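Rather than argue in generalities, we have chosen a single entry, letters for residues, whole numbers for local backbone shapes, without further comment.
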Amino acid sequence: MKITVKLFASLSDLLPPGTRANAVEVEVGEDATPNAVVDQFRVPRKMAHLVLCNGMFVEPERRDLPMLKDGDVIAIWPPIAGG
């Protein structure tokens, strides 16, 4: 199945060269999990601070559950610091 992966802030450096709008479409298995996507893009799990599936927050304890469907969009942000 195909999903869209969006990586933001410093994580966007992990996207393939030539990626536009911080998003890339990828093929994943039917039993794919959010953490499998995190691992596929070599995002350190501690850096996957905010994970959204179709705009809905995925709690860290649920990220190993197969929940993805064809056409889903996974967005991942690192921890943000500021002042």
User: Anything to note?
Assistant: The mean pLDDT is 94. The chain has one domain: 2-77. The helical segments are 34-40. The longest strand covers residues 2-7.
